[in-house]
């Protein structure tokens, strides 16, 4: 496997036109002249669900752009201690006159710099080849209109958010958009969707567009892929447009979306900005420039904790949907072991939310149900608790919001940028947004106060009895299935 | 989303010596602080020239705005924050250092928004001092593992208490580094604070336990 760990910083990613059988990407290392080629493919058949008779060519460009960003980000690894990687992406498109506009190009590069820490430059060439087959199909039978399009990851936030929206607006229909390159993730998206469809017939629709590399094992890839959120949102926005809407919904709890550093040792992109309010705003602005019409990416749960998002799910606790979802950052693939680790930050937040919303957590995790790894399983929990302690300390000394905001923003000055830059997107004033964020952090701290002892216990009592419990549960399940 | 958050497990090898010294607890606080500052000085000299140059550019930007009510205007402050981001984005360099100078600048901007009075000529000093503090906290203080099994069996709370004792010495050192760097506009001549020599008391029984 070729390593990218050396001090070489400039790459040119040259894409052939993206066809049905994919696109050859040349990754040229400017310093060494090394020229590697891989194929990247998008499976876009599901984009046939649309309201336009002819496929909008600008949307085909949005899809190509998303694929190019995904591939370029994955094929270049940024070490935060080294100078920033410079990426030049050359991509043939149908509308170079739009994509090469200075303002749009700057917006795109700034957004990607914010999300990935890499310096991006784009050169859009005119595409000479005909489009993919999906573009050439003249639609005679249009898809049913939908009221809302939302991203569908197969995670707990996506489920909780959707469930809440379905319950709150009984007349609305929803189209879900999923993507990814992992078969298990795609299957998870499908399975949870089917379960929901049984509960809410004729109100749901699922579109999934996988992106995959082909014959690329010889190249090391960026495991963090910080552009993932942008890629997912660009494709979701394209789908929303095809369904006749100008808004894409993202269901993500505010704590996870803002994703403040746990301790000061976490700097910049140590914490992902995938669904940060500024990222959503950036993608919305970019789409607006691309389609020439107002477009917005909206998270209706920005001011909700994960537990608060799950209120509707908790009210219908008889229906166990939560355990079908996956939150884990690093799923395990060992035989006879649960896949979700139970100790990464995403798993810990999931456990916290389920406990705080009084929902029985029926998920099987490595911790506490399996064989724990040798590393410190309390690492993420301790870091998260340290952040909770910081928030508590900042919020407690005064009941006045002015003082609380001063204390919060002194420790987390990035909160000012969130308020300044996104309050208009939320249709609220600066003061209202500060109030909402203070309330969000207060709720989060209160939830932890309630659940911390029981949650911490899980990390102490990892003995064989729990392994036995899990194994016996598995065998019971198998027994039931065989009946 | 907390999606692949990177959490640092260990303190880097660079700071192991002051960490162990602190855990062992036999060295005078001022000597322990000197050891820490010595490490920080070396690190700054290797890596902080771009943050220093950036601190000047950002200070120029902020200084122009220092005046009646400028920073209490949220819209104006939001604009300044954007300009800071753009200045930092345009400079090449390790993203970690760029993030730290950004954090430092935004902290100073936040202070100004909340009414901190500052002379225009002191803005660069405030930013670069804050950068040094952020660097110390990111690379050492808040990177110390959250463990109760530290070197020499010291608990985390005791370790934090000992670090608290060092704080005045460290703060003095950060100021001295920042002041020298601003005066010289480079980092070549950073000096550790003078060693405080304990006066020898001829009547003291050195063997007394």
Q: What would a concise description of this structure say?
A:
The complex is a heterodimer of chains A (483) and B (209). Chain A has helices spanning 57-74, 96-99, 102-116, 133-136, 156-168, 183-199, 228-242, 254-258, 277-291, 306-309, 311-315, 345-356, 366-369, 379-395, 401-411, 414-422, 430-460, 464-482; strands at residues 10-15, 23-29, 35-42, 86-93, 119-126, 148-151, 174-180, 204-214, 247-249, 296-298.
Structure in words:
The complex is a heterodimer of chains A (483) and B (209). Chain A is α/β, with parallel strands linked by helices. Chain A has helices spanning 57-74, 96-99, 102-116, 133-136, 156-168, 183-199, 228-242, 254-258, 277-291, 306-309, 311-315, 345-356, 366-369, 379-395, 401-411, 414-422, 430-460, 464-482; strands at 10-15, 23-29, 35-42, 86-93, 119-126, 148-151, 174-180, 204-214, 247-249, 296-298. In chain A, the strands form two sheets. Chain A has an eight-stranded mixed beta sheet, with helices on both faces. In chain A, strand 1 (10-15) and strand 2 form a beta hairpin. Residues 1-6 and 462-483 of chain A have low confidence and may be disordered. Chain B is mostly helical and 209 residues long. Chain B has one domain (27-184). Chain B is globular and about 60 Å long. The relative contact order of chain B is 0.17. At the A-B interface, helix 12, helix 14, helix 15 and helix 16 of A face helix 4, helix 5 and helix 6 of B.
């Amino acid at each position: 496997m070729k390593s990218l760990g050396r001090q070489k910083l400039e790459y040119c990613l040259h894409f052939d036109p993206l066809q049905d059988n994919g696109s050859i990407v040349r990754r040229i290392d400017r310093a060494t002249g090394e020229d590697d080629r891989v194929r990247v493919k998008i499976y876009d058949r599901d984009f046939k669900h649309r309201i336009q008779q002819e496929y909008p060519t600008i949307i085909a460009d949005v899809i190509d752009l998303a694929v190019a960003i995904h591939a370029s980000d994955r094929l270049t690894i940024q070490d935060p201690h080294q100078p920033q990687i410079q990426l030049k992406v050359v991509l043939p498109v149908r509308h170079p006159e739009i994509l090469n506009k200075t303002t749009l190009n700057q917006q795109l590069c700034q957004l990607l710099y914010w999300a990935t820490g890499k310096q991006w430059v784009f050169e859009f060439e005119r595409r000479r080849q005909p489009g993919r087959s999906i573009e050439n199909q003249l639609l005679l039978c249009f898809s049913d209109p939908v009221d809302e399009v939302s991203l569908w990851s197969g995670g707990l936030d996506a489920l909780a958010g959707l469930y809440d929206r379905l319950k709150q607006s009984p007349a609305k229909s929803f189209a879900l958009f999923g993507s990814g390159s992992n078969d298990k993730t795609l299957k998870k998206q499908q399975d949870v969707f089917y379960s929901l469809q049984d509960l809410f017939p004729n109100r749901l629709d699922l579109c999934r567009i996988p992106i995959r590399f082909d014959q690329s094992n010889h190249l090391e890839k960026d495991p963090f892929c910080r552009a993932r959120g942008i890629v997912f949102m660009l494709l979701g926005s394209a789908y929303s447009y095809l369904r006749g809407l100008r808004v894409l919904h993202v269901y993500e709890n505010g704590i996870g979306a803002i994703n403040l550093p746990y301790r000061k040792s976490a700097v910049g992109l140590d914490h992902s900005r995938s669904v940060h309010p500024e990222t959503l705003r950036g993608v919305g602005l970019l789409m607006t420039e691309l389609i020439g019409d107002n477009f917005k990416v909206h998270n209706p749960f920005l001011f909700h904790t994960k537990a608060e998002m799950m209120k509707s799910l908790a009210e219908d606790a008889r229906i166990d949907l939560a355990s079908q979802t996956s939150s884990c950052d690093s799923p395990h693939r060992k035989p006879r072991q649960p896949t979700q680790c139970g100790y990464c930050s995403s798993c810990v937040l999931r456990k916290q939310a389920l406990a705080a919303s009084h929902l029985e957590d029926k998920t099987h995790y490595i911790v506490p149900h399996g064989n724990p790894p040798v590393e410190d399983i309390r690492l993420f929990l301790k870091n998260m608790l340290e952040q909770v302690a910081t928030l508590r300390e900042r919020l407690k000394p005064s009941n006045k919001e002015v003082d609380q905001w001063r204390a919060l923003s002194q420790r987390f000055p990035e909160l000012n940028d969130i308020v300044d830059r996104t309050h208009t997107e939320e249709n609220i004033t600066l003061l209202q947004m500060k109030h909402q964020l203070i309330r969000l952090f207060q709720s989060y701290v209160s939830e932890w106060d309630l659940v911390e002892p029981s949650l911490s216990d899980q990390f102490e009592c990892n003995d064989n009895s729990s392994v036995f419990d899990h194994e016996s549960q598995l065998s019971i399940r198998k027994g039931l299935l065989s009946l | 989303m907390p999606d692949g958050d990177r959490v640092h497990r260990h303190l880097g090898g660079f700071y192991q010596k002051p960490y162990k010294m602190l855990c062992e607890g036999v060295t005078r606080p001022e000597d322990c602080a000197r050891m820490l500052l010595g490490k920080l000085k070396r690190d700054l000299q290797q890596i902080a020239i771009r943050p220093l140059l950036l601190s000047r550019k950002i200070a120029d930007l902020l200084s122009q705005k220092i005046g009646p009510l400028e920073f209490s205007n949220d819209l104006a402050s939001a604009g300044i924050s954007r300009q800071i981001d753009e200045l930092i984005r345009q400079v090449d360099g390790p993203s970690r250092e760029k993030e730290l100078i950004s954090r430092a600048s935004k902290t100073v901007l936040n202070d100004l928004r909340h009414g901190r009075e500052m002379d225009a000529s002191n803005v660069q000093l405030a930013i670069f001092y804050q950068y040094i503090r952020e660097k110390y906290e990111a690379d050492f203080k808040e990177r110390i593992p959250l463990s109760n099994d530290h070197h020499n069996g010291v608990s985390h709370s005791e370790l934090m208490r000992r670090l608290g004792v060092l704080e005045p010495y460290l703060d003095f050192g950060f100021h001295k580094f920042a002041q020298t760097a601003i005066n010289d506009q480079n980092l070549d001549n950073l000096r550790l604070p003078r060693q405080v020599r304990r006066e020898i008391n001829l009547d003291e029984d050195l063997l007394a336990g």
